[in-house]
Amino acid sequence: LRCGMRTTKCQLLVTCLCVMLLGLSIATLSTVTHYGLHFTLISDISLESNSYRPIHHAAFYFGIGLSMTLILAALLSSTATVRESRCLTAMGFFCFALAFCSLLPAVCWRYTHSTQVEDSMMDVYDLVYEEVRRNTSSFRRHELMAIHEAFLCCGKRSPFGDTANVEHKTCPPGQVH
Is residue 165 part of a domain? Predict the structure, then answer.
């Protein structure tokens, strides 16, 4: 019986370590996503209709909250395992339940709005591109050039007219066509 208890405690501690590593990886991924060049570039473009910005911030705060909940649950569970405390075990299970319940709406949002992030990023790009095409504002041209450099892309096909002039002015050398 004593050997079985030690084995169970070791398994629980290893599981807690894995959950803690999962929480740290979610926090790292959220931070890299929030402060990464590709994502901040689109988020920082100052358009009144930039629908990407709220999604960008919500994803960051949700990721940080989830990672903190998982880390807290792992710490409480490992302490409860070592001390054999029922109260700490209950608090650890409550944190796991809270993390699980917060993931359910996120999964539902992901499947019901599967293209919203991509569409909002493309909307920002289209608005900047069309503004540069219509008006040669140096501010928007610099933003478009930064997008082209960050995403390694160059222009688009437009049914509204010739885009070659915009591409020659905003694309990095060697990427036109």
Answer: no
